[in-house]
Amino acid sequence: MVTLLAKAFIFLFSLALPTISYAEVDNRKWQKPTPIFKQDFDWIKLTSDEWLKGDIVSMYDEKLEFDSDELDIQTIDLEDIAELRSKQWQSIRMFDGTIAEGYLVLKEGRLSLVKHGVTSHYELSSLLSIASSGKNERDLWDGYVNVGINLREGNTVQFDYTFSAGVQRRSSSSRFKTDYTADYSRYEDQDTEEMKVTADSEHLTSSYDWFFSPKVYFRAADIEYTADEFLNLDYRIHYGIALGYHILDTSRTTWDVNIGPSYQKSKFLDVQETESDVESSFGLTLGTDYTFEVTSDIDFDVSYSIEMVNEASGGNIHHFQTGLEIELTNDFDLDLTLYADRTENPKADSDDNIPEKNDYRLVVSFGYDF
């Protein structure tokens, strides 16, 4: 009887053995796979164990801007990154001013650069910024183009357009930025059938910033050009330098302020006989820029500057700009922007007509980012 029970137990165990073996194989099959790092992408592993592929844009003040292949531009706190691998050379800048470049690897809290087969290690806590290496110049640049057009036919014949464009180059230690806006409007007088221009202006700004700490930057060049027929302004050129400070810099909000001396030269289209058509003045410029990410697809921006010059050059000159940028697709946006400009002491023309101090424009435009 015992022998019979033993044989039955062995038989049942032999039947269960493949099932146990299969369960073990099945468990092994579901082990987390090791990703294959294709050189076409930069790769990020988050502390949540998720992987993102795309392109490193830049990193400053422990915030990494990453263009995800599927999720578009993402701003990620450095503390949320478990691993980072670059597809090409990156340039890093440390707090002590050291600048180095190579293939970037960040893993287990260690920062490494691989250059010509040699690996160099750096203290992650001393990292100030990351940007694409100068060997890949085109990756340092980005820009945008926006166009807003209004056409009317019938009882009112009118044509309005606003065009704006800008480019930016950002490296591990500096930022160059240029923005241009043109505004034009005309309508047809129904009585005389004459076309009358009601707006014709241009505005160009350009700046170069050098970052030497997480909070402070030096604006080595600040240039502004303005032309506005209805402000009696042939041109106004502003040159300045400034010291800037990051008041707030989080994953969703940035707020900068800057202040510095400036020089302005203006040429007016038409002036009274006793007045000069060219004025120049030294002054003081204050500015601030604020950005808030309302949602992943909507950004709110505010920019304000005031230039204080002598009365003959216009007195206090204010420029205010605010609006929403709504992402429609990966590269296309819908922009709603309010412009407000004020010149405290505009120049009268030869007929003693004084331009209005305030100008307001609300523009709806369609934009492309590149």
Plain-language structure description:
- It is a single chain.
- With 370 residues, the protein is mainly β.
- The chain folds into 2 domains: 91 residues; 230 residues, Autotransporter beta-domain (Lipocalin), CATH 2.40.128.130.
- It has 1 helix and 21 strands.
- It has a 12-stranded antiparallel β-barrel.
- A hairpin with a 2-residue loop joins strand 2 and strand 3.
- About 2% of the residues have low confidence.
Salient structural properties:
about 375 residues; mainly beta; Lipocalin; 9-stranded antiparallel sheet; 1 helix
SSE map:
Elements: H1 2-29, E1 42-46, E2 51-60, E3 63-68, E4 72-77, E5 81-94, E6 99-107, E7 110-115, E8 118-122, E9 127-132, E10 141-152, E11 158-170, E12 174-188, E13 195-211, E14 216-228, E15 233-249, E16 253-268, E17 278-293, E18 298-308, E19 316-327, E20 332-343, E21 358-369
Antiparallel strand pairs: 1-2, 1-5, 2-3, 2-9, 3-4, 5-6, 5-9, 6-7, 7-8, 10-11, 10-21, 11-12, 12-13, 13-14, 14-15, 15-16, 16-17, 17-18, 18-19, 19-20, 20-21
